Amino acid sequence: MSIPAENYYRASLEHRPEWPVLEGRVHTRVCVIGGGFAGLNTALGLAERGLSDVLLLDARQIGFGASGRNGGFVFGGFSRGEDALLRDLGPQRALAVYAGTTDAVELIRGRIHRHGIECDAVEAGIVWANWFRDPRVLRSRQQLLAEHFGVNWQWWSRERVRERLRSERYHEALFEPQALHFHPLKYAHGLAALAARLGVRVHERSPALALERDGAGWRVRTEHGEIHAEQVVLACGGYLAGLRRRVDAAVMPIATYVMVTEPLGARLHEALHTNAAVYDTRFAFDYYRPLPDTRLLWGGRISVRDRSPSEVKRLLYRDLLKVFPQLSGARIDYAWSGLMSYARHQMPQIGQVEPRLWLAQAFGGHGVAPTTFAGELLAAAIAEGDERWRELSDYGLVSAMKPAGLLAAQLSYSWAQWKDAWKDMSEGIRR
Predict the structure, then answer these.
(1) Which of 87, 249, 260, 277 pairs as cysteine with 289 (C-beta 3.0–4.6 A)?
(2) Phi, psi of 390 (to 5 degrees)
């Protein structure tokens, strides 16, 4: 069966509002470049703080990039592990930074409920399932989170795991009850609509072609217009705008892959007896979740290049059957890839890079809550002079050393896959 290039999220939108192309010469207090979660949350945060006259640009469509095609997991933390945060920042700063993401989860939940954002939200938690027999990785993380971050991930025994996840692959697990999962593109459009109701001017199909100083502020040139802004926020993620070389040089666009099955009906219960989302303890982990129409969304792998839908299907279908062989023969209706932005230090780059020029990028594969956190930090900084963003100043614009950095990233991922495979073999698991 041929697979449509359009991803499931776009195909399942009941209604997609059309935002106008920017035309003519306009003035604004803040211009946000990028219509993904980082940009949307910044624009919305500014409007919620009473800052009038905010304009948001996207080169293509709201949620076109990683924000609108990711796995839909909403939980705390960053791509960089909590143990590394403690080493980097010390207990007090690490706690403050991590708490920003758990607060963001509650902000997301609150916005969904308060504003009636229809985004297929499922408040059933997230399971971190142990692929390997040794439970120490679970115990150590559970203890670290409880002692240093005040977070209680619940222990699931092997029996409980296999009751909920009908697979011989898993052993014990940790369960994060505060987490949720949702349709990220519907949520992105919900944020855009909410921001627009609060006065934000939203423009699609309006790529920023140049960014230049304009007195104390900035001038942004697009294909059909020009913006004079007091302040500018760059929130372009993996789809780099080419506006500041130092900014673009600091991130690596990395691809990840997702597919969605046909509606499985009762067959879904042959694999899952939970509505929670799931990922596993390998470095090169699978992640998946049940969808409201009984489809299964399945993601995994990273690469320095996008792949065709047929290639994505081939790779991920094989991974699916390693975990749930009982789903053999299930049709794959959608498969796609997309670019995320990664920094060498595995943390977001958030803050002021030049006077009145702000940045939010490099959220990696763990971005829904951190992009919300980033939006709050930047909105508070611009509207109120809040300097909490400086807590992340240790994670700055470190060169990604492209193209050598891309090769190094791919080699590092391949090495991690090999280590996962070696551990499998040492436990007698066939891959």
Answers:
(1) 277
(2) -65, -15
Higher pLDDT, 414 or 398: 398
| pTM over cut 0.85 | yes
Place of tokens 């219509």: 35
Quick one: pLDDT band at residue 246, thresholds 50, 70, 90?
A: confident
Give me the pLDDT at residue 398, please.
77
Instruction: Scan for tokens 């627009």, then name that residue.
Output: 196
Beta bridge partners of 232: 31, 357
3-state secondary structure the chain: CCCCCCCHHHHCCCCCCCCCCCCEEEEEEEEEECCCHHHHHHHHHHHHCCCCCEEEECCCCCCCCHHHCCCCEECCCCCCCHHHHHHHHHHHHHHHHHHHHHHHHHHHHHHHHHHCCCCCCECCCEEEECCCCCCHHHHHHHHHHHHHHCCCCEEECHHHHHHHECCCCCCCEEEECCCEECCHHHHHHHHHHHHHHCCCEEECCCCEEEEEEECCEEEEEECCEEEEEEEEEECCCCCCCCCCHHHHCCCEEEEEEEEEECCCHHHHHHHECCCCEEEECCCCCEEEEECCCCCEEEEEEEECCCCCHHHHHHHHHHHHHHHCHHHCCCCEEEEEEEEEEECCCCCCEEEEEECCEEEEECCCCCCHHHHHHHHHHHHHHHHHCCCHHHHHCCCCCCCCCCCHHHHHHHHHHHHHHHHHHHHHHHCCCCC
Binned at pLDDT 50, 70 and 90, residue 15 comes out as confident
**Which candidate, 344, 340, 342, 341, places its Cα nearest to that of 398?**
344
Residue 221: what residue type?
Answer: R
Here the tokens at position 321 are 């059957």
The span from the CA of 7 to the CA of 231, in Å, is: 34
Burial zone of 181 (CB within 10 Å; 0-12 exposed, 13-18 middle, 19+ buried)? buried
CA 381 to chain centre: 23
Structure tokens at 358: 């702000």
pLDDT of residue 231: 98
pLDDT value for 241? 72
Residue 161 has pLDDT above 80, yes or no: yes
What CA–CA distance (Å, rounded) separates 312 from 317? Answer: 8
